[in-house]
Structure formats: C-alpha cells, structure tokens
Amino acid sequence: MLTIATGNRAVAEAAKAARPGVIAAYPITPQTEIVEQLASYVADGSLDADYIPVESEHSAMAACIGASAAGARTFTATSSHGLLYMQEMLHWAAGARTPVVMANVNRALGPGWNIWAEHTDAFSQRDTGWLQVFVGSVQEAYDATLMAFRIAEDERVLLPVMVNQDGFLLSHITQSLESVEVGDFIPPFSLPHAIDTARPRGYGTLTGPEHYYRFRWDMERSMRASKEVIRETEAEFARRFGRAYGPIEEYRCEDADVIVIALGTLGKEAEVAVDVLRGEGVKAGSMRLRWFRPFPALDLSGRDVVVIDRDYSFGFGGVVAQSVRATTRAEPYSVIAGLGGQEVTYDDIAQFVRQREAGAEFWFGVSD
User: Is residue 61 part of a domain?
Assistant: First the structure.
C-alpha cells in the first residue's frame, strides 16, 4: 500500500507489522511519535502486544531484556540522552543475547541542549555489541526496521539491532512509503535459551576469568556471522518486495576518482553533490554507509576520499573517518559537519570535494 508518512511513522508501521509481543518505551524528542503511534495501535486493538509505559529509558531496555529472555519479540525506541541512560542495559541486552530491536532517532547531546540531528549518540554505544544500521529515507526506515527483526532473531546472530535515523531531517519529513504484507518474511520468534516457566531453574550471572572471555568471543563470532545473515536477509527482501539494499549504497562510483562517504541524510545529500561535480567534469561518486556495525568492507583503492562525520570523538577525530582509515589504506579528507543539526547542503558537500586535502581535518563553519 502506498501512502505518505514521516520517518517516525514508517518505523512504527514496520514495528507493528513485525508483531512484537512487548513494547516498552519512554518518550523523548524527536522519537516520541514512534511510541505514541504504537501505543495507539495497542489501544485500538490493531496490534496485539503488551505496551509498558515505563518510568525511564533504562527501565524500557530492562523490560525489553526481560521480555525477550522469556521468549517475546520486543521493540523500543529512544534518542540522544535517552540512549545514554540505557547504556548499562545495552551491554546487558547484547551480552544476554536478547535480540531486541530499537529505533534510535539521532539527536545531539547536551550541554548545550539541542534536539537536532547528530550521530554521536549512536556512536557512543558502538562497542556495546549492538548491530547498527543508518537509514537515509522514509522507505528505508520502514524496510530496515522490518529486516532488523529477522536479522536479530536469526540463531547465527541473536544480537540486538539499532535502527538509526536523523532527527527531524528524516524523523519528521514526509515522503512516500510503500508498506508490504510481511507474511512469513519474519518467522515466529524462538529464543533457544528462553526462560521456560514450566521448567524453573536458577541462573547464576557471575562469570569468572576462565569463562568470561569466551562469552565475549561468542558475541564477536556472531557479529561476524551477521554479515552473511544481513546479506541473505537483504537478498530475500529484494526478491519478495523489489527493493534492494546492501552494507553500502554506491552512487556513480564505477569510474570515480574521488569518493564521498557519509551516513544517513548526508549520504543522500552527497548524491546531489556528485551530480553537480560531474557537471563540472569532476569524476565524483558517493558511498553512503548503511551498516556501521558490523563495519563493511570498502574498496577505495586508487581514489581520493572525503569523509563527512556528523559526530566527533574528542582528541581522536571523526568516528567514520577514523574507521575508514583503520580498515582501508585510504587517508581521507575528514570533514566535521552537521553537528547539532547544522545545515549542510549539496553545494557545501561539493565544496568539500573541491578543497580536499588528503589526511587533513576540516571543521565546517569554524575558522581557527
């Protein structure tokens, strides 16, 4: 069915279609519309789920972990400081191998208080064991949320998935949305280690040095296995519903001499910049990173690289630029732009490419 929807509404529609048994949530701008919409579905009976209006984001994730451990499909959503308040529980969700799916509407962190888009909130949780995907359109927000349930719950993975979309730039923008009949694309949830009330037993949660590292390695093994599960899931989604995705979205990269790398809406804006540069005779292309965890393999050999980070790791650099540097031989021109919702247009991105200097870092809008 073709409709018009915001990014938030698209996520709520996809979560509903996945048939979660438990939704636990606490409101926070600019995510609130997602959980409000899901609450209305539960209230009107169109979604058969237990909706738990908890007192905090920490409790929301704790409730999802408990419900998942008992064998229920679970969903929640948050943003910014709400995500940070969950941090302890994010580690628990991954370590306990509970495949929670969560929408995170990317928003800057205070102080100063700011409710606009930035990726630092998600990147600050990149080492918790969660898979992370970043979307660039309303349709992709819907599709990625659907696929997140199938990926997370695959027995080769059993790790939680965070679906990230830019606050306001996507969460509150209206675009066309084509929903699908999910059918058996998302199989019934069956957690191999679910608590069985018919067979009560005690669980010891203390893990000594002789075993702890094995649990960590098991998480890493599953993170590596998730690459194949993601590939399979996206291929099956394309076969059934006609929309194809991959770990990155390339645009005019075949003969490109310079590649622009970005996430989310900046990645989509970069495509327009590429067209402008092509009109000037510059062989530019763009790679929009979709999956940040697991981090994708990138073929950048023999090309100049411009990385745009809507984030910053103080004393270290742009997180995406440093990730590209660490996983390839490229020395990118690192651009820090869009922090706290700072406007970045395709003309700005085209200028980043024109002024590029390998290995340098540039803060957009800042003069030393």
Answer: yes
8 Å CB contact between 237 and 245 = yes
Please give the Cα distance from 26 to 53 (Å, whole number): 6
Same domain, 254 and 166: no
Of 276, 281, 226, residue with least CA distance to 251: 276
What's residue 286's pLDDT?
98
pLDDT the model gives residue 15: 98
Based on the domain organization, do 309 and 290 belong to the same domain? yes
Same domain flag for 174 and 276:
no
> CB of 163 within 8 A of CB of 145?
yes
142 plus 277 within the same structural domain: no
* Global confidence as pTM: 0.98
- Domains: count for the chain: 2
User: Helical H runs in the chain?
Assistant: 7-17, 32-44, 57-69, 80-85, 87-95, 120-123, 138-153, 209-241, 264-279, 319-327, 346-354
- Domain range for 291 is 248-363
Q: Determine contact, residues 63/6, Cβ cutoff 8 Å.
A: no
Q: What is the DSSP string of 88-106?
A: HHHHHHHHTT---EEEEEE
Nearest partner of 7 among 244, 167, 121, judged by Cα: 167
* Segments of the chain with pLDDT less than 50: none
d(CA 89, CA 83): 10
**36 three-state secondary structure:** helix
pLDDT attached to residue 115: 98
51 and 150 assigned to the same domain: yes
Q: What pLDDT, on the 0 to 100 scale, is given for residue 96? A: 96
| pLDDT for res 368 | 65
What's the confidence (pLDDT) of residue 99? 98
Report if residue 191 sits inside a domain: no
